[in-house]
Write a structure and sequence with these properties.
alpha+beta; 4 helices; 5 strands; about 30% strand
């Protein structure tokens, strides 16, 4: 297995994408935050003192995607054309967070989608920790990536 971020001397480097063709690219990632049923109910009814949890978490996730290259050392700064963050109640104690990032560029947006999910989940935790310190963030992963040289990939 060859790593694109490691040079012949074994040093970590940013990959040169300057010679790559522009293409439409997108990535979707998701994660789950588990909590007490009463916490999820409070989120749904805007019953928390810090405010509207999902609205704040959505904005935080979008901001996280935009700041990805500042957080992950070898990521390229990207001109994202779309970032969306959505939430789905999958049980009385589980909230699924889904992020999709898009651009027309020379490198993929997988890290931006993963960062968006991570920051959105952390924001939910931050806004709810006063009532539920036992929340857990789990199963963050890439669901799909489209475009670029390697084409399509979907989690099986």
């Amino acid at each position: 297995m060859e790593f694109s971020h490691i040079n012949a001397s074994g040093e970590a480097n940013m990959v040169d994408v300057g010679g790559k063709q522009l293409s439409e690219r997108s990535a979707t990632a998701s994660g789950i935050i588990r909590m007490l049923p009463s916490t999820l109910q409070a989120i749904k009814t805007d019953g928390l003192k810090k405010g509207e949890v999902l609205a704040v978490a959505r904005i935080a996730g979008i901001q996280g995607a935009k700041k990805c290259s500042e957080l992950i050392p070898l990521c390229h700064p990207l001109a994202l054309t779309k970032v969306s963050v959505s939430f789905e109640e999958i049980s009385d104690r589980e909230l699924k967070v889904v992020a999709n990032c898009r651009l027309r560029g020379q490198t993929g947006v997988e890290m931006e989608a993963l960062t968006a999910v991570s920051v959105a989940c952390l924001t939910v935790y931050d806004m709810c920790k006063a009532v539920d310190k036992g929340m857990t963030i789990e199963a963050i992963g890439l669901d799909e990536k489209l475009g670029g040289k390697s084409g399509e990939w979907r989690k099986s």
